[in-house]
Amino acid sequence: MNAKLIMAVVATSVLATGCATTGSAVSYGDAQAVETLTKDFGSTDLQMIAAKMVDDMLTFPPVVQMTQTRRPVIVLDRIHNKTQEHIDTESITDTIQNKLINSGKFRFVDMKSVNAMAQQLAYQKQSGMVNQATAVRTGGHIGAEYMLNGNLSSIVKNAGGKSDVYYKFTFKLQNLQTGIVEWTGEKEIRKAAKRSTFGL
Q1: β pairing state of 73-81 and 146-159
Q2: CA 19, CA 132: separation in Å to the nearest integer?
Q3: H or E stretch at 49
Q4: Strand arrangement, sheet containing 162-175
Q5: What per-residue confidence (pLDDT) applies to 200?
Q6: Which residue spans within 25-126 are E strands per DSSP?
Q7: How high is the mean pLDDT of the chain?
Q8: Quick check: keyword Magnesium in the entry (predicted)?
């Protein structure tokens, strides 16, 4: 087989592969639908945890009382991932924060944007490019009264071709001035899977 023929065969293969890839069907699914592709932590677990935590917190009598006449300021701490999986715990806290803000009961201090805000304030004050009559004055940030934080842990067991994973998520609301835990909640999830005979 000469060189020209070999190159023609390779080019044809590449084009065929490209067509197969770009021609694959893509469709949208329901983001709220139950996801059960694997036993690993997934979108349905995230949604269930966020809904459970927010519902429990908003209906807890002392929390109902503290939010009757005002909107307390909360800071969200990170969730400690104690599982063996790589889980985007920031997505969990983001969803919980969104639900609590949209409830109209709380305000939040976003610690993830503190550095960006500090840079912007320094720019307004020090760059010489901002009209100081319109520049934001420093020292006006409101301190958080409460902190939300949590833990995500799991227990995994495998036996007889079956796999079982138990997730436990705990969340607590703590008074920053007194250190008192004002509320705590937890959500448990158990998932089971049967391993394929062919190891797939």
Answers
A1: parallel
A2: 59
A3: helix 43-59
A4: 107-109, 73-81, 146-159, 162-175, 181-194
A5: 46
A6: 73-81, 107-109
A7: 83
A8: no
CATH architecture observed for domain 58-112+142-200: 3-Layer(aba) Sandwich (3.40)
Closest to 168 measured CA to CA, from 54, 91, 55, 81: 81
Quote the pLDDT of residue 160: 80
Please list, in sequence order, all residues whose beta carbon lies within 8 angstroms of the beta carbon of residue 124, skipping any fewer than 6 positions away. Answer: 130, 135, 136
Alpha-carbon distance of 42 to 29, in angstroms, equals 15
Other residues' Cβ atoms within 10 Å of the Cβ of residue 42: 15
Output DSSP code: residue 22: H
From residue 88, alpha-carbon distances to 17, 34, 42, 108 in Å are: 34, 18, 10, 20
Give 144's contacts (C-beta < 8 A, 6+ positions apart): 73, 74, 75, 109, 176
Length of the chain counted residue by residue: 200
| Sequence ranges of the domains in the chain | 58-112+142-200
Q: Is 82 helix (H, G, I), strand (E, B) or coil?
A: coil
- Of the candidates 171, 173, 169, which has an alpha carbon nearest to the alpha carbon of residue 190? 169
**Separation of alpha carbons 153 and 68, rounded Å:** 34
Concatenate the DSSP letters of all residues of 109-122 into one string: E-GGGHHHHHHHHH
